[in-house]
Amino acid sequence: MNQSVVTLPGDGIGPEVTAQATRILRAVSDGLDLGLQIRESLVGGAALDALGTPLPEETLAACRSADAIFLGAVGGPEWANVDVKLRPEKGLLGLRKALGLFANLRPVTTHPALVDASPLRAERLEGVDILVLRELTGGLYFGKRGRTASHAFDTCEYSVEEIERISRLAGELARARRGKVTSVDKANVLDTSRLWRETVNRLFQTEFPELELEHIYVDAAAMYLMSRPREFDLILTENMFGDILSDEASMLAGSLGLLPSASLGAEGPGLFEPVHGSAPDIAGQGIANPCAAILSIALMLRHSLHQGEAALMIERAVSEVFKSGLRTADIARAGAGETVGTVVFGDAVLAALALR
Protein backbone atom coordinates (compact mmCIF):
# COMPACT_ATOMS: atom_id res chain seq x y z
CA MET A 1 0.00 0.00 0.00
CA ASN A 2 1.37 3.42 -0.98
CA GLN A 3 2.22 5.82 1.82
CA SER A 4 0.41 9.14 2.11
CA VAL A 5 1.56 12.63 3.07
CA VAL A 6 -0.59 15.61 4.05
CA THR A 7 0.84 19.09 3.45
CA LEU A 8 -0.42 22.07 5.45
CA PRO A 9 0.97 25.26 3.85
CA GLY A 10 -0.56 27.57 6.48
CA ASP A 11 0.25 31.26 6.66
CA GLY A 12 2.87 33.88 5.82
CA ILE A 13 5.77 32.33 3.94
CA GLY A 14 4.35 28.89 4.68
CA PRO A 15 2.77 28.41 1.23
CA GLU A 16 5.95 29.60 -0.51
CA VAL A 17 8.33 27.21 1.25
CA THR A 18 5.77 24.39 1.18
CA ALA A 19 5.58 24.67 -2.60
CA GLN A 20 9.33 24.05 -2.88
CA ALA A 21 9.35 21.27 -0.29
CA THR A 22 6.49 19.54 -2.11
CA ARG A 23 8.32 19.81 -5.44
CA ILE A 24 11.31 18.04 -3.92
CA LEU A 25 9.15 15.37 -2.30
CA ARG A 26 7.30 14.66 -5.55
CA ALA A 27 10.55 14.49 -7.49
CA VAL A 28 12.07 12.01 -5.04
CA SER A 29 8.87 9.95 -4.97
CA ASP A 30 8.73 9.79 -8.78
CA GLY A 31 12.47 9.31 -9.27
CA LEU A 32 12.75 6.48 -6.73
CA ASP A 33 9.32 5.02 -7.51
CA LEU A 34 8.08 5.49 -3.93
CA GLY A 35 4.49 6.06 -5.03
CA LEU A 36 3.76 8.65 -2.35
CA GLN A 37 0.25 10.09 -2.29
CA ILE A 38 0.37 13.80 -1.44
CA ARG A 39 -2.65 15.95 -0.60
CA GLU A 40 -3.11 19.42 0.89
CA SER A 41 -5.27 20.70 3.76
CA LEU A 42 -5.91 23.96 5.63
CA VAL A 43 -4.52 24.93 9.04
CA GLY A 44 -3.85 28.09 11.04
CA GLY A 45 -5.02 31.50 9.89
CA ALA A 46 -5.84 30.21 6.42
CA ALA A 47 -8.22 27.67 7.95
CA LEU A 48 -9.66 30.24 10.34
CA ASP A 49 -10.50 32.59 7.47
CA ALA A 50 -11.98 29.85 5.30
CA LEU A 51 -13.71 27.64 7.85
CA GLY A 52 -13.83 29.55 11.15
CA THR A 53 -11.37 27.37 13.05
CA PRO A 54 -7.56 27.02 12.99
CA LEU A 55 -7.82 23.22 13.00
CA PRO A 56 -10.81 21.98 10.98
CA GLU A 57 -12.10 18.48 11.64
CA GLU A 58 -11.43 17.48 8.03
CA THR A 59 -7.78 18.54 8.41
CA LEU A 60 -7.38 16.58 11.62
CA ALA A 61 -8.99 13.53 10.04
CA ALA A 62 -6.69 13.74 7.01
CA CYS A 63 -3.64 14.04 9.27
CA ARG A 64 -4.67 11.08 11.42
CA SER A 65 -4.99 8.85 8.37
CA ALA A 66 -1.67 9.94 6.83
CA ASP A 67 1.77 8.41 7.24
CA ALA A 68 3.43 11.83 7.61
CA ILE A 69 2.51 15.52 7.76
CA PHE A 70 4.36 18.57 6.50
CA LEU A 71 3.49 22.01 7.89
CA GLY A 72 4.73 25.29 6.44
CA ALA A 73 4.00 27.87 9.16
CA VAL A 74 1.09 29.39 11.08
CA GLY A 75 0.28 32.85 12.40
CA GLY A 76 0.57 36.48 11.44
CA PRO A 77 -0.41 39.99 12.50
CA GLU A 78 -3.79 39.85 10.76
CA TRP A 79 -5.00 37.45 13.45
CA ALA A 80 -3.48 39.26 16.42
CA ASN A 81 -6.83 40.39 17.79
CA VAL A 82 -8.87 37.22 17.46
CA ASP A 83 -9.91 35.28 20.56
CA VAL A 84 -6.93 33.40 22.02
CA LYS A 85 -8.78 30.10 21.51
CA LEU A 86 -8.93 30.80 17.77
CA ARG A 87 -5.37 31.99 17.21
CA PRO A 88 -3.66 30.29 14.25
CA GLU A 89 -1.07 28.81 16.59
CA LYS A 90 -3.85 26.80 18.23
CA GLY A 91 -4.02 24.78 15.02
CA LEU A 92 -0.44 23.61 15.51
CA LEU A 93 -0.82 23.03 19.25
CA GLY A 94 -4.04 21.13 18.60
CA LEU A 95 -2.32 18.88 16.08
CA ARG A 96 0.51 18.11 18.48
CA LYS A 97 -1.95 17.22 21.24
CA ALA A 98 -4.36 15.22 19.06
CA LEU A 99 -1.57 13.17 17.49
CA GLY A 100 0.38 12.67 20.71
CA LEU A 101 3.51 14.33 19.33
CA PHE A 102 5.59 14.48 22.49
CA ALA A 103 9.08 14.80 20.99
CA ASN A 104 10.53 17.59 18.87
CA LEU A 105 13.81 16.96 17.05
CA ARG A 106 15.79 19.95 15.83
CA PRO A 107 19.15 19.08 14.23
CA VAL A 108 21.68 21.90 14.03
CA THR A 109 24.70 21.41 11.78
CA THR A 110 27.13 23.87 10.26
CA HIS A 111 27.66 23.72 6.51
CA PRO A 112 31.32 24.43 5.67
CA ALA A 113 30.21 26.65 2.78
CA LEU A 114 28.11 28.80 5.15
CA VAL A 115 30.50 29.58 8.00
CA ASP A 116 30.42 33.22 6.89
CA ALA A 117 26.65 33.32 7.59
CA SER A 118 27.08 32.82 11.33
CA PRO A 119 28.09 35.64 13.69
CA LEU A 120 30.48 33.21 15.42
CA ARG A 121 34.09 32.77 14.44
CA ALA A 122 34.71 30.00 11.92
CA GLU A 123 36.99 28.01 14.25
CA ARG A 124 34.14 27.62 16.73
CA LEU A 125 31.78 26.25 14.08
CA GLU A 126 33.88 23.49 12.57
CA GLY A 127 32.33 20.08 13.21
CA VAL A 128 29.21 21.34 15.00
CA ASP A 129 26.53 18.63 14.85
CA ILE A 130 23.86 18.95 17.54
CA LEU A 131 20.44 17.39 17.95
CA VAL A 132 18.11 19.29 20.29
CA LEU A 133 15.42 16.96 21.64
CA ARG A 134 12.59 18.96 23.19
CA GLU A 135 9.67 17.56 25.17
CA LEU A 136 6.67 18.95 23.35
CA THR A 137 3.41 18.35 25.23
CA GLY A 138 4.16 19.28 28.85
CA GLY A 139 5.51 22.22 30.81
CA LEU A 140 4.41 25.83 30.80
CA TYR A 141 2.84 25.73 27.35
CA PHE A 142 0.28 23.12 28.39
CA GLY A 143 -0.14 23.76 32.12
CA LYS A 144 -2.99 25.48 33.92
CA ARG A 145 -3.13 29.19 33.25
CA GLY A 146 -5.22 32.22 34.04
CA ARG A 147 -5.34 35.98 33.92
CA THR A 148 -7.19 38.87 35.49
CA ALA A 149 -6.68 42.61 35.05
CA SER A 150 -3.93 42.59 37.68
CA HIS A 151 -2.65 39.01 37.86
CA ALA A 152 -1.62 36.15 35.59
CA PHE A 153 -0.18 32.67 36.02
CA ASP A 154 1.17 29.83 33.91
CA THR A 155 1.84 26.47 35.53
CA CYS A 156 4.75 24.20 34.67
CA GLU A 157 3.96 20.55 35.33
CA TYR A 158 5.69 17.30 34.44
CA SER A 159 5.06 13.69 35.36
CA VAL A 160 7.60 10.90 35.71
CA GLU A 161 5.96 9.14 32.76
CA GLU A 162 6.39 12.17 30.48
CA ILE A 163 10.05 12.55 31.44
CA GLU A 164 10.77 8.85 31.02
CA ARG A 165 9.18 8.83 27.58
CA ILE A 166 11.32 11.66 26.18
CA SER A 167 14.45 10.43 27.98
CA ARG A 168 14.10 6.96 26.49
CA LEU A 169 13.91 8.44 23.00
CA ALA A 170 17.00 10.53 23.78
CA GLY A 171 18.91 7.39 24.67
CA GLU A 172 17.80 5.58 21.53
CA LEU A 173 18.79 8.51 19.32
CA ALA A 174 22.12 9.03 21.11
CA ARG A 175 23.07 5.40 20.48
CA ALA A 176 23.03 6.19 16.75
CA ARG A 177 25.08 9.37 17.24
CA ARG A 178 28.21 9.99 19.35
CA GLY A 179 26.77 8.57 22.56
CA LYS A 180 26.60 11.74 24.67
CA VAL A 181 23.44 13.27 26.17
CA THR A 182 23.33 16.68 27.84
CA SER A 183 20.18 17.10 29.93
CA VAL A 184 19.27 20.74 30.46
CA ASP A 185 17.19 21.91 33.42
CA LYS A 186 17.00 24.48 36.22
CA ALA A 187 17.21 22.04 39.13
CA ASN A 188 18.68 24.63 41.49
CA VAL A 189 15.36 26.53 41.41
CA LEU A 190 12.47 24.46 40.03
CA ASP A 191 10.80 21.35 41.46
CA THR A 192 9.87 20.21 37.97
CA SER A 193 13.57 20.34 37.05
CA ARG A 194 14.55 18.38 40.14
CA LEU A 195 12.06 15.67 39.16
CA TRP A 196 13.39 15.88 35.60
CA ARG A 197 17.00 15.36 36.69
CA GLU A 198 16.20 12.51 39.07
CA THR A 199 14.11 10.70 36.46
CA VAL A 200 16.65 11.13 33.66
CA ASN A 201 19.43 9.84 35.93
CA ARG A 202 17.49 6.77 36.98
CA LEU A 203 16.39 5.85 33.45
CA PHE A 204 19.86 6.22 31.94
CA GLN A 205 21.52 4.22 34.71
CA THR A 206 19.03 1.42 34.08
CA GLU A 207 18.53 1.45 30.31
CA PHE A 208 21.51 3.29 28.80
CA PRO A 209 24.50 2.77 31.11
CA GLU A 210 26.92 2.83 28.18
CA LEU A 211 26.02 6.43 27.23
CA GLU A 212 27.68 9.55 28.61
CA LEU A 213 25.12 11.67 30.50
CA GLU A 214 25.69 15.15 31.88
CA HIS A 215 23.39 17.72 33.47
CA ILE A 216 23.71 21.48 33.09
CA TYR A 217 21.51 24.45 33.96
CA VAL A 218 19.69 26.17 31.12
CA ASP A 219 21.53 29.48 31.56
CA ALA A 220 24.88 27.68 31.29
CA ALA A 221 23.62 25.78 28.24
CA ALA A 222 22.74 29.06 26.54
CA MET A 223 26.26 30.34 27.15
CA TYR A 224 28.02 27.12 26.12
CA LEU A 225 26.07 26.92 22.86
CA MET A 226 27.85 30.08 21.77
CA SER A 227 31.23 29.54 23.44
CA ARG A 228 31.85 25.79 22.90
CA PRO A 229 29.15 24.31 20.65
CA ARG A 230 31.29 21.36 19.45
CA GLU A 231 31.04 19.80 22.92
CA PHE A 232 27.32 19.10 22.48
CA ASP A 233 25.96 15.98 20.82
CA LEU A 234 22.32 15.49 21.89
CA ILE A 235 20.62 18.08 24.10
CA LEU A 236 17.62 16.76 26.04
CA THR A 237 15.31 19.31 27.64
CA GLU A 238 11.78 20.35 28.51
CA ASN A 239 9.34 22.33 26.41
CA MET A 240 10.12 26.00 26.97
CA PHE A 241 13.87 25.57 27.45
CA GLY A 242 14.00 23.56 24.22
CA ASP A 243 12.04 26.19 22.35
CA ILE A 244 14.48 28.92 23.36
CA LEU A 245 17.73 26.96 23.05
CA SER A 246 16.94 25.56 19.62
CA ASP A 247 16.26 29.05 18.27
CA GLU A 248 19.52 30.25 19.79
CA ALA A 249 21.33 27.30 18.22
CA SER A 250 20.11 28.44 14.81
CA MET A 251 22.83 31.11 14.92
CA LEU A 252 25.40 28.34 14.73
CA ALA A 253 24.02 27.38 11.33
CA GLY A 254 23.58 31.02 10.33
CA SER A 255 19.81 31.45 10.05
CA LEU A 256 16.48 30.08 11.23
CA GLY A 257 15.82 29.53 7.55
CA LEU A 258 18.24 26.59 7.58
CA LEU A 259 16.77 24.53 10.39
CA PRO A 260 14.28 21.67 9.94
CA SER A 261 12.35 19.93 12.68
CA ALA A 262 10.43 16.74 13.35
CA SER A 263 7.69 16.15 15.92
CA LEU A 264 7.15 12.50 16.75
CA GLY A 265 4.82 10.43 18.90
CA ALA A 266 4.82 6.86 20.14
CA GLU A 267 2.85 5.85 17.04
CA GLY A 268 1.02 7.44 14.13
CA PRO A 269 2.23 10.12 11.72
CA GLY A 270 5.06 12.51 12.48
CA LEU A 271 4.79 16.25 11.83
CA PHE A 272 7.65 17.93 9.98
CA GLU A 273 8.13 21.69 9.70
CA PRO A 274 10.75 24.40 9.27
CA VAL A 275 11.69 26.17 12.49
CA HIS A 276 11.45 29.69 11.08
CA GLY A 277 7.75 30.49 11.52
CA SER A 278 5.52 32.49 9.21
CA ALA A 279 7.83 35.54 8.75
CA PRO A 280 4.98 37.86 7.67
CA ASP A 281 7.43 40.72 6.99
CA ILE A 282 8.76 38.92 3.90
CA ALA A 283 5.69 36.92 2.87
CA GLY A 284 4.76 37.21 -0.79
CA GLN A 285 8.13 38.65 -1.85
CA GLY A 286 9.61 35.41 -3.16
CA ILE A 287 12.73 35.73 -1.02
CA ALA A 288 12.03 33.22 1.79
CA ASN A 289 14.66 30.54 2.34
CA PRO A 290 13.10 27.13 1.54
CA CYS A 291 16.09 25.21 2.87
CA ALA A 292 14.56 24.38 6.28
CA ALA A 293 11.37 23.20 4.60
CA ILE A 294 13.31 21.02 2.15
CA LEU A 295 15.45 19.54 4.92
CA SER A 296 12.27 18.86 6.91
CA ILE A 297 11.21 16.67 3.99
CA ALA A 298 14.48 14.77 4.46
CA LEU A 299 13.61 14.25 8.15
CA MET A 300 10.16 13.04 7.08
CA LEU A 301 11.65 10.49 4.70
CA ARG A 302 14.03 9.25 7.40
CA HIS A 303 11.82 9.12 10.49
CA SER A 304 8.26 8.49 9.22
CA LEU A 305 8.55 7.05 5.73
CA HIS A 306 11.67 4.95 6.45
CA GLN A 307 13.48 6.05 3.32
CA GLY A 308 16.93 6.84 4.69
CA GLU A 309 18.71 6.86 1.35
CA ALA A 310 16.18 9.32 -0.07
CA ALA A 311 16.74 11.56 2.94
CA LEU A 312 20.49 11.52 2.36
CA MET A 313 19.99 12.40 -1.30
CA ILE A 314 18.12 15.57 -0.36
CA GLU A 315 20.62 16.58 2.31
CA ARG A 316 23.52 16.10 -0.09
CA ALA A 317 21.71 18.07 -2.79
CA VAL A 318 21.20 21.02 -0.43
CA SER A 319 24.89 20.91 0.50
CA GLU A 320 25.82 20.92 -3.19
CA VAL A 321 23.71 24.03 -3.75
CA PHE A 322 25.49 25.81 -0.92
CA LYS A 323 28.86 24.74 -2.31
CA SER A 324 27.87 26.20 -5.69
CA GLY A 325 27.59 29.62 -4.06
CA LEU A 326 23.84 30.16 -4.18
CA ARG A 327 22.39 32.01 -1.19
CA THR A 328 18.97 33.29 -0.17
CA ALA A 329 18.71 36.77 1.30
CA ASP A 330 18.85 35.65 4.95
CA ILE A 331 22.30 34.10 4.54
CA ALA A 332 23.69 36.38 1.83
CA ARG A 333 26.97 38.13 2.53
CA ALA A 334 28.68 40.78 0.44
CA GLY A 335 31.04 39.17 -2.02
CA ALA A 336 30.00 35.64 -1.05
CA GLY A 337 28.02 33.78 -3.69
CA GLU A 338 24.90 34.69 -5.65
CA THR A 339 21.68 35.78 -3.93
CA VAL A 340 18.59 34.04 -5.30
CA GLY A 341 14.92 33.77 -4.45
CA THR A 342 12.78 30.94 -3.13
CA VAL A 343 11.93 29.31 -6.45
CA VAL A 344 15.43 29.51 -7.92
CA PHE A 345 16.84 27.87 -4.80
CA GLY A 346 14.26 25.09 -5.17
CA ASP A 347 15.22 24.72 -8.85
CA ALA A 348 18.86 24.32 -7.86
CA VAL A 349 18.10 21.60 -5.31
CA LEU A 350 16.03 19.73 -7.90
CA ALA A 351 18.92 19.92 -10.37
CA ALA A 352 21.41 18.73 -7.73
CA LEU A 353 19.24 15.68 -7.00
CA ALA A 354 20.02 14.49 -10.55
CA LEU A 355 17.04 12.16 -10.59
CA ARG A 356 16.27 10.45 -13.88
In short, what is this structure?
By secondary structure, this protein is of the alpha/beta class. It has helices at residues 14-31, 44-51, 57-65, 89-99, 122-125, 160-175, 191-207, 218-227, 239-253, 291-303, 308-323, 342-353, and strands at 4-10, 37-40, 68-73, 101-109, 129-135, 145-147, 152-154, 180-185, 212-217, 234-237, 260-265, 270-274, 326-327, 338-339.
* Mean pLDDT across every amino acid position: 94
Per DSSP, the total helix count is 12
Total domain modules: 2
State the CATH class of the largest domain: Alpha Beta
Structural class: alpha/beta
What is the global morphology?
globular
CATH topology of the largest domain: Isopropylmalate Dehydrogenase
Assembly state: single chain
Q: How do the SSEs run, as a string of H and E?
A: EHEHHEHEHEEEHEHEHEHEEHHEEH
The fourth-level CATH homologous superfamily of the largest domain is Isopropylmalate Dehydrogenase
**Which strand order does the major sheet show?**
2-1-3-12-11-4-5-10-8-9
- What's the story with the biggest beta sheet? 10 strands, mixed
Q: What is the end-to-end distance?
A: 24 Å
Radius of gyration: 20 Å
